[in-house]
Structure formats: structure tokens, C-alpha cells
Write a structure and sequence with these properties.
507 residues, mainly alpha, 2 domains, five-stranded mixed sheet, two-stranded antiparallel sheet, 7 strands, 61% helix, 6% strand
């Protein structure tokens, strides 16, 4: 008897419904989890909001678009609005993968690719940490889709949309140049690509993309303190250290694809009685160009982007891995062949649901239990709202002015800067990291300096003491985490720099 699961029947009869159910389910879970359980934004998100608050054309963290959108979402909907924006980017990425898959591997296998991507994203990309990489995911996916429409299908009307997508990618991530070089390499290596570049449309597309990003590129040309250190690191690079860092990054990405390996094992005929009849997910024969494109853009961006990061000695985390894994699901579909038999359908269904629900559920349980059992400290449980309110009110009571600058430890100061009533500017440890405000501004306009207190009097760290040598330290302020458990209270050292009248101009 041929057993057909509900998933297979949905793939055959209602593929779009299955796509939207999967995409919106993961978006709802990863929006609800941080909104309910986090009392502070995760990862680098507080710094992203602090940079976006200034609406600069650029920063040492890259192009401005993601920072601007994060700030706009925060002003409109608070931190929940930023979480919703992040999941909207994930859903848009899955939409692009689904559309590209329908044009290359067929509708049913495109849905399977999306189901795989939900497992990959859940294991490899911490999506609540909105930033340039999260925003680059849907833009890069749409660029690939539009590139296929323009080159693979020969539809010239998509060149202008591709130009806009390329321009937005330049405004989103510093790795955009690597992606564009790979697009050019693939086009030059294919017959259709060389034919397309024989017309004026691709060159006009490149010009429009650069024109869209021109304000940021002009800013970058004058911000030599941003890109010159990278060139200096290239001249003093250690090849062995760079190769070791690159291999570690690739290993982390391979581990993040463990869900794909699990699905492949469960769907394989291993230890299945010979002759067992199984339903299959079929596709028409693929175009050679489509197969080559999916292979190339599943592997080349991953290798090139991670190699560039390792070569420049930049920090890497899974929070920035999103754009390099967007083609992983389609890559598995192409490798699986024109007919994919679905063995162990019940186990496959249960495993997929576990990958969808398991990570957010496990994280929620960890946040609830580990502070009580192992006294584990989670920064997402820091009381950012209470911290921001206390320091803003204290400064205003003492000086009669609203708080406009927060300095000190960037991780703690960025949480204080989230206060939605005052939204002070964040002064970080080096001028290149906070180009919008300086130590002189803090002395003139007043500021609050904060850090984590590690002793009873709350002695400031050496770098803070060097920046503010005449700092008058207050008694450390204790805050309770949203889930305190058996941890000691969070003690924050702080000091107030009173505003001073600007010095009279020299005669």
C-alpha cells in the first residue's frame, strides 16, 4: 500500500498554502519569542539602533540603509517593531527563494527548498538580531531572482529592477562588491550572460546601481579612517592565521547545516526494504544554466565572502551569515535529482516541526530555567527600560536638562541610549566608531558615563578613566534582571558629567 503523508499531498495540491504556512509560522514564533522574553535587544542590535539614531551616511560598521530602517521601525513600533522588521526580511527572503525555485526546479521542489531553508535559518542565523546581514538576505535573493529573469530568461524589462536591487545592496552591506563581482564572473562564463552583456542594458544597470549608492560612496571616499585600517591589515597579514580563521568559519557554517543532513538521512532509502513504493516529488528537466547558477551562487558567495572576512581579520558570527546561505535549499534540491522519493515521511514531518518549533522553545526554556539552575547570565534579560529611565531622570534632576549623551562601556551605554523619551546619542570608545559625538561634546553638553561595576566602589575601567580623568564616581546602581534567578543583582557603575558653558571665543 502506498502511504502518502499530508505534507506530500499539500506539496501536490496546495504548494503556495504550504509555503505561506511555513514562512509565517517561523516569523510569528521568532517575533513573539523576543517580544515576550527579552527585556534587552539581543547581540549587536542596541549598537545598530544607536548608530541608526544619528542617520549618518555611513559608519565604521558599513553602509547606512539597515541602520536607518532599524531606527524608523523603533520609532514607529518600539523594539517589537524591529523584531517584526527582521522577520519581514526573512519572509521576503523565503519569497525570493520560492520564486527563483519555481522558475528553476518547479513549484513542488521550490516548497521543499523553502522548508529546508527554515531549518537552516533557525540553526544558522539569529534572526531577531536585525542588522545589515539580515536586510541583505532578501535584497541579495531578489538580485539573484532578477538576474535570472534578465539573463536566464532573456527578459530585458527586469534590468532596471535589478539596478535598483544592486543599488540597495550597496547601501546595505560592505560585501556587496564581492557579490557583484561574482555576478559578473558568472555572466562572463555563460553564453547567455555574454550575450546579455553585448547590449547596453547591463551597463546601464551598473551605472544606475552606482548612482543609487553615490551618496554613501562619496562619504566613504572621504572617510579614510574607515577603510585605511583594512588596507593596513592586508599588508601585515599572517597567511596561516587567516587560513585557520577561514576554516573555522566554514566549519561553523557546516555545523549550522546539520538540519539539512538530518533531512537527507531521513529521506534516503537507507535501511528501507527493497521494493518499497514511495511517493516522489518530481520536477521537469532543468535548464543547464539554471543548474549552473544554483551551484555557483550556493558555493561561490560562501567561499568568497568568508574568505574576505578572514583575510581582513574582521569578526565573524552567525549573525552575519544570512546572505551566504540563501541558496543552500535550492542547492540540495538540484543535487537530489528530478525525482525525490520521500522515505520516512512521518519522521520527516516530525523533524521539520521540531526544527521550526524546537529552537525558540528551547531558548525560552533556557531563559526561564538556567538563571535559576546554573546561575547563567543572559544579556537579553538586562532591564534596559529601567536603566534608561533611571539615568535619564537622574541627569535631568541634577542638571535641569534632558540627557543627550551616554558614554562608557558600549554594551551598557547602548542599552541606556534606548530610552524612548530622550534617545541620547551613544559616545563609543574611539572617534571613528562615534563620528557624530565626541568627548568634547560630552564635557560641553553633559553626559552620563556607565559601565559594569566589578568592585564595591564601582571603579571605572582604565579606558573610561583615560577619556574622563576628572570623573566623579557615584555609588553603583543595582538593577534586577527580568528573570533574576540565583544571580547577583546587576551593578552598574556610573557618573554624571555636568554640562559646561562653552568657552568664549578668543579675541
Amino acid at each position: 500500500m502506498l502511504y502518502v503523508s499530508l505534507i506530500h499531498e499539500s506539496l501536490r495540491a496546495r504548494p503556495r498554502l504550504m509555503f505561506w504556512a511555513a514562512a509565517l509560522s517561523q516569523a510569528a514564533l521568532w517575533t513573539a519569542l523576543p517580544t515576550v522574553f527579552y527585556s534587552s535587544p539581543p547581540g549587536e542590535l542596541p549598537i545598530v539602533l544607536a548608530v541608526g539614531h544619528e542617520f549618518q551616511l555611513g559608519s565604521d560598521r558599513g553602509p547606512p540603509l539597515a541602520f536607518w530602517l532599524a531606527e524608523i521601525a523603533y520609532r514607529l513600533g518600539g523594539i517589537a517593531g524591529v523584531y517584526l522588521l527582521s522577520q519581514a526580511c526573512v519572509v521576503a527572503t523565503l519569497m525570493g527563494i520560492f520564486a527563483l525555485g519555481r522558475s528553476t526546479v518547479g513549484t513542488a521542489q521550490a516548497v521543499l527548498a523553502v522548508l529546508l531553508m527554515i531549518g537552516i535559518i533557525a540553526m544558522s542565523v539569529p534572526t531577531p538580531e536585525f542588522g545589515p546581514a539580515i536586510l541583505a538576505m532578501p535584497i541579495w535573493t531578489m538580485v539573484l531572482l532578477l538576474f535570472w529573469r534578465a539573463v536566464g530568461e532573456g527578459r530585458s524589462e527586469y534590468w532596471i529592477a535589478l539596478a535598483v536591487g544592486m543599488g540597495l545592496l550597496l547601501l546595505t552591506t560592505s560585501l556587496a562588491w564581492i557579490y557583484f563581482i561574482l555576478l559578473a564572473v558568472f555572466a562572463a562564463a555563460s553564453v547567455q550572460g555574454r550575450a546579455a552583456f553585448g547590449s547596453v542594458a547591463p551597463w546601464l544597470c551598473t551605472f544606475v546601481a552606482i548612482l543609487i549608492a553615490a551618496p554613501y560612496l562619496a562619504w566613504l571616499a572621504h572617510a579614510d579612517d574607515v577603510w585605511k585600517p583594512g588596507l593596513a591589515r592586508l599588508s601585515a597579514i599572517d597567511p596561516l592565521a587567516a587560513a585557520g580563521g577561514w576554516l573555522r568559519i566554514l566549519w561553523n557554517l557546516a555545523v549550522a547545516h546539520v538540519g539539512v543532513v538530518l533531512f537527507a538521512v531521513l529521506a534516503s532509502p537507507w535501511r528501507v526494504p527493497r521494493g518499497t513504493r514511495m511517493p516522489t516529488v518530481d520536477r521537469p528537466a532543468m535548464q543547464p544554466l539554471a543548474k549552473s547558477m544554483i551551484f555557483f551562487f550556493a558555493l561561490a558567495p560562501l567561499i568568497a565572502a568568508t574568505g574576505a572576512v578572514a583575510l581582513l581579520g574582521q569578526p565573524w558570527s552567525l549573525a552575519v551569515a544570512g546572505p551566504v546561505v540563501v541558496c543552500s535549499g535550492l542547492f540540495v534540491m538540484v543535487m537530489a535529482g528530478n525525482q525525490i522519493p520521500l522515505y520516512r515521511q512521518r519522521l520527516l514531518s516530525m523533524s521539520w516541526v521540531s526544527l521550526l518549533v524546537g529552537p525558540p522553545l528551547a531558548l525560552a526554556v533556557a531563559l526561564l530555567l538556567l538563571p535559576w539552575t546554573l546561575a547563567m547570565d543572559f544579556k537579553v534579560l538586562y532591564p534596559s527600560r529601567e536603566m534608561g529611565r533611571f539615568f535619564a531622570d537622574t541627569f535631568e534632576r541634577r542638571t535641569g536638562r534632558p540627557l543627550t549623551i551616554v558614554a562608557g562601556d558600549p554594551e551598557i551605554a547602548a542599552l541606556v541610549a534606548l530610552d524612548r523619551r530622550t534617545r541620547p546619542s551613544l559616545l563609543m570608545d574611539t572617534p571613528v566608531r562615534s563620528r557624530w559625538v565626541s568627548v568634547a561634546d560630552a564635557r560641553t553638553n553633559g553626559a552620563v558615563v556607565v559601565w559594569l561595576a566589578t568592585d564595591t566602589p564601582g571603579t571605572p575601567p582604565a579606558n573610561i578613566k583615560a577619556s574622563f580623568p576628572d570623573l566623579v564616581v557615584e555609588v553603583p546602581r543595582a538593577f534586577a534582571r527580568s528573570i533574576q534567578g540565583r544571580l547577583p543583582l546587576l551593578r552598574v557603575g556610573w557618573a554624571v558629567i555636568r554640562p559646561q558653558a562653552p568657552a568664549p571665543p578668543a579675541q
